[in-house]
Specification:
Distance between the termini: 17 Å
Organism: Acinetobacter populi
Strand order of the largest sheet: 1-4-3-2
Strand content: 15-25%
Keywords: Cytoplasm
Protein name: Potassium binding protein Kbp
Pfam family, one: LysM
Structural class: alpha+beta
Number of strands: 6
Main location: cytoplasm
Largest sheet: 4 strands, mixed
């Protein structure tokens, strides 16, 4: 898919358990690049998207995460990219995922202040009542259709 930009510092705090604990204790308040990568990996694994060979690296100089592996569907690929990008430390995601069964890509939309899923559905589908299509397309990233925030990036399926 390529390189995706996100708003750094606006995403949710990554509270996922890291896949591995770091070997040395951290002496600063900022997490190391490896700690961030491990937490991002734990976050995506926690979504149970079934991505084979999943690996995530993080560059703290550029705030860029790179995600690799093979997703079973385009939707799973996009959810993994959004899960990583909608975290506060990440400004860009380099998507190096492949898809077992390629499908058309969804559009991505960055939530603005005052947006809600109905308003976004009206803009993309011409019908505010189709908000649930957007909500379902973003599960398990969204737990409630009313809990979106400015700067968050959402999948908008065709």
């Amino acid at each position: 898919m390529g390189l995706f930009d996100f708003v750094k510092g606006i995403g949710k705090k990554n509270t996922a358990q890291p896949v591995e604990q770091p070997a040395t204790p951290q002496t600063t308040t900022e997490p190391s690049a490896q700690e961030v990568a491990n937490k991002l990996l734990g976050l995506v694994q926690g979504l149970n998207l079934g991505i084979k060979g999943l690996s995530i690296s993080y560059n703290s100089t550029t705030d860029q995460a790179t995600i690799r592996g093979e997703a079973q569907s385009q939707a799973d690929r996009e959810k993994a990219v959004l899960a990583v990008g909608n975290v506060d430390h990440v400004a860009q995601v380099d998507d190096q995922l492949t898809v077992a069964a390629p499908e058309p890509e969804s559009k991505f939309y960055t939530v603005k202040s005052g947006d809600n899923l109905s308003k976004i559905a009206k803009e993309f589908y011409g019908d505010a009542n189709k908000y649930n299509k957007i909500f379902e397309a973003n599960k398990p990233l969204l737990k409630d259709p009313d809990e979106i925030f400015p700067g968050q990036v959402l999948r908008i399926p065709a």
